[in-house]
Design a protein that fits this description.
Pfam families: UvrD-helicase, UvrD_C. Its EC number is 5.6.2.4. InterPro entries: DNA_helicase_UvrD-like_C, DNA_helicase_UvrD/REP, P-loop_NTPase, RelE/ParE_toxin_dom_sf, UvrD-like_ATP-bd. The protein is an alpha/beta fold. It folds into five domains: 6-104 and 241-247, 2-Layer Sandwich (YaeB-like fold); 112-214, no CATH class; 258-349 and 466-537, Rossmann fold (3-Layer(aba) Sandwich); 362-440; 574-731, 3-Layer(aba) Sandwich (Rossmann fold). It has 27 helices and 27 strands. The strands form seven sheets. It has a seven-stranded mixed β-sheet, sandwiched between helices. The chain has a six-stranded mixed β-sheet with strand order 2-3-4-5-1-8. Strands 11-10-14-15-9-16 form a six-stranded parallel β-sheet, with helices on both faces. A hairpin with a 6-residue loop joins strand 2 and strand 3. The longest helix has 21 residues, at 445-465. The protein starts with 5 loop residues before the first strand and ends in a 5-residue tail after the last helix. Bound molecules: adenosine-5'-triphosphate. Adenosine-5'-triphosphate is lined by residues 252-254, 257-259, 262, 278, 280-286, 511, 514, 541-542, 660, 662, 708.
């Protein structure tokens, strides 16, 4: 006779468990272990409850009881952990239903709105105002008695996925405070739909952006709990190890509970390269990590590393390693090559001994090197900046083989066109420049990427020419790339050559709105065809709705690409988290602005636990801010190329350094005209308008990235005239 049982935990229950004392958490773990072994163990007191026929309770310890849904024979779902005094009192307060849209199991708290003390105090205040348009920062008064969702029929709300048992309460909502109270405990899809409608989205927009992405593909039987528990919309954990990590060790919810949209992307079989886009904080990196774990689970056993996980820079690669370790431990990490893209290229080059012992110089130095070269060789007539960009982006960037290739090359985003004679001159100059660099024993990361791409393409060609049993197998079975928007064409060519074309070969995550290095590519022209396999995440897990709305203002009027020649926007980008409005503060001078910063940090209680960061446009400003904080006796920690030098202290860094980081509170300072965007790009305004546009967009993205690192609070400050990226609506909110 079989004595064991399946026991899964619903994501909602884990929130309750996390609030328990260490000893009680331990008891929950013991309980789940025992229960799985034998639910009929008399010590567990498993029994049915009144109310819902599937609802049962079992004893965790003296004080706590587990509420379980019996989804099928010997198959249980832990839906809540309650103090024994609450278990019998409160049963009618909760309903357990299968959502007719997603097919997932939802726990619905039916407590009346206005029951909480906060709810009563706030909703009694008739001056409460509610926003009526897409920007939650815009507040317009609404008469107290008008129902908020009066324009929508029950059928419409249900079609959007709102939980049916909540309809009477939703109908009665008349104030924002009541809505917020209800949404605090409503199922996630209900919250998401109601917020979106409340923010002024149309019914059709909400259906397309919020509901459709989580809609189950098959028809839903609202009584079939066994099918429901297996759907991605029921966020559960089932294995002991995950549960133990949750209960005993510190863990991130992302390690266990994926949003249904995220899970679908992770577990899908793709017929070729796939791409996941989406705004900041929507969990693209999380999806990339889970995708790696998912792919690793399908691999035959071995000790090799058939999966490559790469990203743009060093600190992000280090962060991926840490998070992958948290997700799957040593066993998973052992099967994955985690390396940033430049280091990968440099490894390929050293393996082939193609580096010739040259020292690598920073790509930012290339314009100066070109200028030196032109002076030394007396070649007038060409602008060093122009040549530097043409060399890096077109000649090296596209891995052009010959002058003939260069004659034919497309030069997207490069501004002025070049005739054949000019191309001939540039090609020859580039050849001489390369020799000149070599003579000095130096080369650039761009050159390394180009060399590595060439080596890998040759390797792939050799392997396809050889018969089976070839020495040259593709390096990887799967390639997963995070921050894909920042890779250059040469990087893509190298990666393409490292993995054989086929199902699940490449998985890319990234957001072109966050492109902060000047790399623009069309993937299909590089042999990476993502057509029909491109998806987008839209729900931010990081930033509040208020921060997000202001960050989106920064992006006003700009057009972004989809890495494949088309356009992409942030439609549907939203958050369910709430907080205060970001503050905007202007000062007359930089010295006064620094005082403002110090005052703000003081107002936050001078927290030095690494939860606060200050972001500035240049290194000089960073040095000034560090000095100012230190004058106040505060430990300031610079964010270097490998991330913050220490976890504690107040972190200070330039905008570029903030990619991939997250802070509870952030100040972005020096957001002044002439600094953001950088003054020096104005020289391209007339001479090279396309370049001007590109550089301006890049600076805008830097500010957007910085603004979306803040989880709870954001302050933006400037001195003199504010940056043109701050719309008048934002500047008008300036504090005195
Ligand atoms: N399913 C989830 N459950 C809980 N937290 C999540 C989930 N998905 C993402 N997060 C959290 O949201 C935050 C942002 O996630 P992540 O870094 O993956 O976003 P991203 O889209 O890569 O952001 P960016 O584009 O800004 O780099 C992280 O703190 C992450 O832990």
């Amino acid at each position: 006779m079989k004595t064991g049982a399946m026991l899964r935990m619903l994501d909602r229950a884990d929130r309750e468990v996390m609030k328990l004392s260490r000893a009680d958490k331990g008891a929950v773990y013991e309980f789940t272990h025992k229960f799985r072994h034998n639910p009929d163990n008399p010590g567990l007191h498993l029994k049915s409850l009144h109310g819902d026929s599937r609802l049962m309770s079992a004893r965790i310890n003296r004080d706590y009881r587990a509420l379980l849904l019996n989804v099928a024979e010997r198959d249980f779902l832990l839906v809540a952990v309650k103090h024994r005094s609450e278990v019998y009192d409160d049963l009618s307060r909760y309903a357990y239903r299968i959502n007719r849209v997603t097919g997932g199991i939802e726990v619905i708290d039916l407590a009346p709105v206005g029951d909480s003390i906060v709810g009563r105090v706030v909703s009694a205040d008739s001056s409460v105002a509610v926003p009526a348009v897409a920007d939650p920062s815009v507040v317009e008064p609404r008469p107290r008695s008008q129902p908020i969702f009066g324009h929508y029929s029950d059928a419409q709300l249900l079609e959007l996925g709102v939980a049916e048992p909540l309809l009477p309460q939703i109908r009665a909502l008349t104030t924002e405070a009541e809505l917020l109270e209800l949404l605090d405990r409503a199922p996630q899809l209900t919250t998401d739909v109601l917020f979106a409608l409340f923010d002024g989205k149309t019914y059709e927009e909400v259906r397309a952006q919020v509901t459709d992405p989580v809609r189950a593909e098959e028809p839903i039987d609202p009584e079939d709990f066994e099918a429901a528990v297996a759907r991605p919309a029921t966020q559960v954990t089932s294995d002991d190890e995950a549960l133990q990590a949750m209960l005993v060790e510190s863990f991130g919810r992302w390690q266990i509970f994926l949003h249904p949209t995220q899970r679908k992307l992770v577990e899908r079989r793709y017929n070729g390269p796939a791409r996941v886009g989406g705004g900041p904080g929507t969990g693209k990196t999380i999806v990339a990590l889970h995708r790696v774990a998912y792919l690793a689970r399908q691999l035959p056993p071995g000790t090799d590393k058939p999966i490559l996980l790469t990203t743009f820079n060093r600190n992000l690669a280090a962060d991926l390693r840490t998070r992958l370790m948290a997700l799957g431990g040593e066993e998973l990490v052992a099967r994955v090559d985690i390396v940033n893209i430049d280091r990968l290229a440099s490894r390929v080059v050293s393996e082939a001994r193609a580096g010739g012992g040259r020292r690598v110089v920073n790509d930012n130095d290339v314009p100066q090197l070109w200028a030196d070269f032109l002076i030394e060789t007396g070649d007038a007539g060409w602008d060093a900046d122009f040549l530097a960009a043409e060399w890096t982006q077109v000649i090296l960037g596209q891995v052009l083989n010959s002058r003939t290739d260069y004659f034919k090359a497309r030069r997207p985003n490069r501004g002025r066109s070049l005739n054949r004679m000019e191309r001939d001159q540039i090609w020859r100059l580039a050849e001489r420049f390369t020799t000149w660099l070599e003579g000095q024993g130096i080369w650039t990361w761009r050159q390394i990427a180009e060399r590595a791409a060439r080596l890998e393409m040759d390797r792939a060609a050799a392997s396809s020419a050889e018969s089976s049993g070839s020495r040259h197998r593709p390096r990887y079975r799967h390639v997963v790339v995070d921050e894909a928007q920042d890779l250059s064409a040469a990087h893509w060519k190298m990666l393409r050559a490292m993995v054989a074309s086929g199902p699940d070969d490449m998985f890319l995550t990234g957001d072109t709105h966050q492109r902060i290095y000047d790399n623009h590519v069309t993937l299909s022209s590089l042999g990476i065809n993502i057509r029909g396999r491109s998806s987008r995440l839209t729900l931010s897990y990081r930033t509040t709705r208020q921060i997000l709305a202001d960050a989106l203002q920064i992006m006003t009027g700009e057009v972004y690409d989809d890495l494949d020649g088309g356009e992409e926007d942030l439609a549907g980008y939203r958050s369910l988290l709430r907080g205060g409005q970001p503050s905007f503060r202007g000062a007359a001078t930089w010295a006064q602005e620094r005082d403002l910063l110090a005052e703000q940090v003081r107002a936050w209680g001078n927290p030095i636990d690494g939860s606060v960061a200050l972001c500035v446009p240049t290194r000089e400003f960073a040095a000034d801010v560090i000095a100012r904080l230190e004058a106040d006796g505060l430990p300031a920690v610079e964010i270097g190329p490998d991330g913050p030098k220490q976890p504690d202290g107040i972190h200070v860094g330039t905008m570029h350094r903030f990619k991939g980081l997250e802070y509870q509170r952030m100040i972005i300072a020096g957001v002044s005209d002439g600094l953001v965007p950088r003054q020096l790009i104005s020289r391209y305004r007339d001479t090279d308008p396309k370049r001007y546009q590109r550089e301006r967009q890049r600076d805008r993205s830097l500010l957007f990235v910085a603004a979306t690192r803040a989880r709870d609070e954001l302050v933006v400050s400037w001195h003199g005239t504010p940056s043109p990226f701050l719309t008048s609506r934002l500047v008008q909110r300036q504090l005195p």
